[in-house]
Specification:
The chain has 12 helices and 10 strands. The protein is α/β, with parallel strands linked by helices. The chain folds into 2 domains: about 150 residues, Nitrogenase molybdenum iron protein domain (Rossmann fold, 3-Layer(aba) Sandwich); about 120 residues, Rossmann fold (3-Layer(aba) Sandwich). Helix 2 links the parallel strand 1 and strand 2. Helix 1 packs parallel to helix 5, helix 5 packs antiparallel against helix 6 and helix 6 packs parallel to helix 12. The chain is globular and about 60 Å long. The relative contact order is 0.12.
Length: about 280
């Protein structure tokens, strides 16, 4: 059994044990947009009683009550909803919110999504909590299969250096532990800032110039034309080759089944860049 599959099984077993104390149809609150999306994908959308801002996918999620955002939660409104379980994000939900949930005796489940394998594990965990294991397992298996196919397709792709841009003011990137970096690596890319200690660190323009990536991938939806932004630095290989690409943030940064589409788009962009260097 692969390590990823073993982790998924362990996560599902732990969730099954944890879910035993919950009702068969628990009232669920999601404290992150991607957890909302995962709940729908796992067949638990109709059990959601509240979410946070930017929970905008699928369309049905837009009509759910909002109780805050990623950094603040209206605990009075949350209590009034009488949730059976609150879904939290271990690397994103602030510690003070977790502490307040515990002080209020509200059951919460942390759903970690650091790597691609965590997406299917999260689906299975939510399915076990919600009692929708059939739907969740189907979604998880589909995700695993599609990602595995992409891994095989690009296993022998020529390595190409990539700068991943999250924001432009200031310029932010990701290190090698971020799920976007794993997507780039799957496609044969090498994250030029993979060795930085922070998960999503700021970097200077000078550092990008020094790294001189062959490709720039921007997931900042506020930049209308990333190539135009970088055009002034004509010494960059990516600029000279026109290998600067804009990819939708939601399909790249949210650890959900839509990452399959984000991975396909990333691989296509890197293939286009490789042709520029022939």
């Amino acid at each position: 059994m692969s390590r990823g599959r073993l982790l998924a099984v362990v996560a599902a077993l732990c969730a099954c044990v944890a879910a035993q104390a919950l009702p068969s149809r628990p009232r669920i609150v999601s404290l992150a947009p991607h957890l909302t999306e995962l709940a729908y994908a796992a067949g638990a959308g109709d059990l959601l009683v509240a979410v946070v801002e930017y929970s905008d996918y699928p369309e049905a999620a837009r009509s759910l009550p909002r109780i805050g955002d990623a950094w603040r939660v209206d605990m009075e409104r949350l209590l009034a909803l009488r949730p059976d379980v609150v879904l939290t994000w271990p690397s994103g939900t602030p510690d003070d919110i977790i502490q307040r949930l515990e002080a209020l005796k509200l059951t919460h489940r942390g759903i970690a999504t650091h790597r691609l394998a965590d997406v299917s594990a999260a689906l299975r965990t939510i399915g076990a909590i919600a009692g929708t294991t059939g739907t969740a397992e189907a979604a998880a298996a589909r995700f695993d299969t599609e990602i595995a196919e992409l891994r095989r397709t690009y296993a022998a792709a020529r390595p190409i250096s990539v700068f991943i841009q999250l924001d432009d003011q200031p310029v932010y990137t990701v290190n090698g532990r971020h799920i976007i970096s794993e997507v780039v690596e799957l496609c044969g890319g090498r994250n030029v800032f993979a060795d930085l200690p922070q998960l999503a660190p700021p970097v200077s323009i000078e550092a990008v110039i020094a790294a001189d990536p062959e490709v720039i991938v921007s997931t900042d939806d506020t930049i209308a034309d990333p190539l135009a932004m970088w055009q002034r630095w004509t010494g960059l290989r990516a600029v000279r080759a026109g290998a600067v690409f804009s990819l939708p943030a939601d399909t790249m940064a949210r650890a959900t089944p839509r990452l399959v589409a984000g991975t396909r788009a990333t691989c296509a962009a890197l293939d286009t860049a490789r042709r520029s260097y022939r």
